[in-house]
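Hey, quick one: can you model this chain's 3D structure?
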Amino acid sequence: MKSKRLFSGKQGTEEINISPLIDMVFILLIFFIVTTVFVEETGVEVSKPQATSASDLEKNSILIAITEAGNVVYGGKDVGVSGVRPIIRRLYQKEKMPVIIQADRRSITDIVVRVLDEAKLAGAVSVSLATED
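Sure thing. Here's the predicted structure for all 133 residues.
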């Protein structure tokens, strides 16, 4: 009587093809990079005043800083009070974002009010002052 072999003569393991997995990871990586909201910092460090009524605002916003010396800074560049209105108008054409003024606690109130006025005259609907918790 002849016996049949139950197993084939191949010895070894089968490999799992992971190339579709790598493709999927790259697609997800590209998706998250494209949909990420980048927060544009003002470029200067200010010492913000404290407030008990502070709340978190949207990440996608226009940040304008006022230093202790009275410089108005946007994107690391000194734009002055007169430069606030054109910047906000240009950015508002792309997307309606809230304006956040980061004023140093020792900055001059007159400059803060003038920057606030320029933001409102540019068409900003929501203008807030940044504070510490």
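One thing worth noting: The domain at 62-129 is CATH 3.30.420.270 (Nucleotidyltransferase; domain 5).
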